[in-house]
Amino acid sequence: MLKKIAVILQPPVALFEFGVLTEVFGVDRSADGVPKFEYVVCAENPNEPLAAGPGSFVVATKTLDAAADADLVAVPSSSLTATPSEAVMSALRDADRRGAYVMSLCSGAFALAAAGLLDDRTVATHWSYADRLARDYPAVRVDSDILYAQDGTIVSSAGTAAGIDACLHIVRTELGSAVANRIARRMVVSPHRDGGQKQFIERPVAGRSEQSLQPTLDWITENIAHTITVAAMARVAGVAERTLTRRFMAEVGCAPHTWLTQQRVARARELLDDTRLSVEDVAAESGFGAAPLLRHHFTRLVGITPTEYRRRFVDRRDAK
Length: 320
Known about the structure:
This protein is an alpha/beta fold and 320 residues long. The protein folds into two domains: 4-187, Rossmann fold (3-Layer(aba) Sandwich), CATH 3.40.50; 205-320, Homeodomain-like (Arc Repressor Mutant, subunit A, Orthogonal Bundle). Helices cover 45% and strands 12% of the residues. The protein has 13 helices and ten strands. Strands 2-1-5-6-10-9 form a six-stranded mixed β-sheet, sandwiched between helices. The protein has a two-stranded antiparallel ribbon with strand order 3-4. It has a two-stranded parallel sheet with strand order 7-8. Strand 1, helix 1 (15-25) and strand 2 (38-42) form a beta-alpha-beta unit. The radius of gyration is 21 Å and the shape is globular. The termini are close together. This is Helix-turn-helix domain-containing protein. Pfam families: DJ-1_PfpI, HTH_18. InterPro entries: Class_I_gatase-like, DJ-1/PfpI, Homeodomain-like_sf, HTH_AraC, HTH_AraC-typ_CS, INH-QAR.
């Protein structure tokens, strides 16, 4: 269960990534039905100002010992050139050894790599740091395209907003879609972006003849349980199918049918999390129609079958 979150700060502190962790885990949203987390901010030398940009400083109030029993230990962006202290690396290794989540945001992956936690794992980081991370740590499988990755209990994200996606991914995994959605709604962000979505998408400037796809995406989401063809999407968008495909690639980063399948799988996860519907009913409500097709796409994108997903995450969570 996700109850205690510890953030380890190292100079220079990236205020945005630190703020992401604080916003998701450090704000009391119990009035909205979100469990209140125990949130601690740690450093090797607490109460000493840590540089966080020109003229800016932050202070951690807890020692690294406060991370010893955390369910999630997170490292926001950190230096690419300064190796973390042995004390910091020891705290990260201890968290990994006892099965806690260990998460990096943006260049925080360098700290996890220095601690030896990323060897033979698939890892996300900001695209501009990916080549250096791969060069400095050749045993790490660096994916420069994806927003975030989970490999075992190691979660890594690309820069800035991708950190929000990674945090909500952990909340969704441990506490269910309903809790993640409540946090996302208060933050006014998308409740779910697939980790495999590309970091960098060329977004055309909307002109008189080419508007945003958002109304079409909203229509797809609202009708996810029904049969939806590319031709139907194109009619809603008011464009030819070829034009729709081109605009999907530019604005969303994938083909229309690929995005539709991702949304169906996301909907299936919500239903598995929040209802006791059978797998057959989940398949129908998410638009796959039949359980075999749901199992095929769910296993391909999530890595396990719907039944195993519910047993491993939902049933375990409900039993706690």
